[in-house]
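Help needed: design a sequence for this.
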């Protein structure tokens, strides 16, 4: 895998990024160590986490993933210098009062969260510090409509950038990014950074997979023209695009019971649990088999090779899953298959948007 640049930053990463949100919930510390060891052995130099992980978010596991990663860095002298480390500050609490008491995300909250993440990660600097979801009230995590009546913004984008600048000046953060953002948000972050000499976002981390391609409805043009890189998450649609739910729906008897979407009802209530999402996933999975591919390989190859994508975030719970996902790199999908994929999308659109 050749390294790719993130935005206009000097960050150079592999086109596969290890996502870690299962560490501390589904994955023990020992197993997480084995997964991270194997990722580096396979050539992956990019890892992503967040202060609110592991998932599903709850007070008992808040910060657990960063803590596990920090313990790994401490146990592997010199490894921190080999890894491009990304983490995220949580946006307004969305009911998670254990993150912070105030439901908003003030400039001082960004700084305090970064300092806490650094301690948990046992590092002096974060390579890519991202805002996990907008401080503004925007449709995210399966919502599709913007409603100005819900706006409760307390901190302007300018103020958020000033907080990031303070972290960069202190040497605690190298570059910044966004997650679950809209075209407006990306434009404003770039415009204000350039106007006021503030840190410029390098990346946006949004969902992008066969059953959730809303990014192609305008955000991809915004990012392309502004020189901002996409690092998509959930390329396998929370497991729907692996084929393991082709016979039995998540949560039903006969379906795998150890997967996130099966174990946690809160996940099934989100976009991934929609019946329409499963219908679409099964159509794509059938296409993969028609062309002699596993559903996992097709879904990952589709994401890996999209022009919009810089580095794809893969979330795994075992070394075997990691190897399968990395092994899919280099797969080229034939034009006929890509055409059939687009026909399904035209018919079923984006059921997990």
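Sure. Designed sequence:
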């Amino acid at each position: 895998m050749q390294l790719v640049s993130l935005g206009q930053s000097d960050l150079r990463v592999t086109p596969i990024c290890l996502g870690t949100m299962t560490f501390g919930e589904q994955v023990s510390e020992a197993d997480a160590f084995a997964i991270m060891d194997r990722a580096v052995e396979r050539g992956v130099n990019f890892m992503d986490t967040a202060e609110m992980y592991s998932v599903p978010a709850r007070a008992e596991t808040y910060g657990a993933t960063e803590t596990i990663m920090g313990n790994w860095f401490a146990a592997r002298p010199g490894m921190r210098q080999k890894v491009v480390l990304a983490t995220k500050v949580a946006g307004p609490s969305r009911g998670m009062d254990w993150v912070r008491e105030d439901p908003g995300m003030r400039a001082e909250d960004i700084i305090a969260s970064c300092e806490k993440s650094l301690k948990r990660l046992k590092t002096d600097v974060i390579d890519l510090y991202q805002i996990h979801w907008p401080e503004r009230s925007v449709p995210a995590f399966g919502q599709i409509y913007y409603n100005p009546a819900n706006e409760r913004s307390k901190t302007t984008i300018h103020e958020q950038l000033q907080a990031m600048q303070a972290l960069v000046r202190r040497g605690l953060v190298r570059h910044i990014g966004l997650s679950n953002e809209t075209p407006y948000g990306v434009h404003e972050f770039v415009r204000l950074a350039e106007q006021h000499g503030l840190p410029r976002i390098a990346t946006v981390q949004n969902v992008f997979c066969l059953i959730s391609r809303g990014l192609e409805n305008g955000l991809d043009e915004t990012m392309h023209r502004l020189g901002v890189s996409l690092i998509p998450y959930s390329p396998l649609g929370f497991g729907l695009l692996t084929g393991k739910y082709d016979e039995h729906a998540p949560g039903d008897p006969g379906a795998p019971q150890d997967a996130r979407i099966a174990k946690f009802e809160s996940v099934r209530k989100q976009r991934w649990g929609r019946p329409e999402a499963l219908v679409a996933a099964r159509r794509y999975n059938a296409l993969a088999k028609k062309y002699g591919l596993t559903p996992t390989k097709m879904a990952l190859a589709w994401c890996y090779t999209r022009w919009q994508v810089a580095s794809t975030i893969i979330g795994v719970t075992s070394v075997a899953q990691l190897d399968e996902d990395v092994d899919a790199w280099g797969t080229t999908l034939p034009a006929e298959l890509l055409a059939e994929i687009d026909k399904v999308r035209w018919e079923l659109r984006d059921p997990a948007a």
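The longest strand covers residues 173-179.
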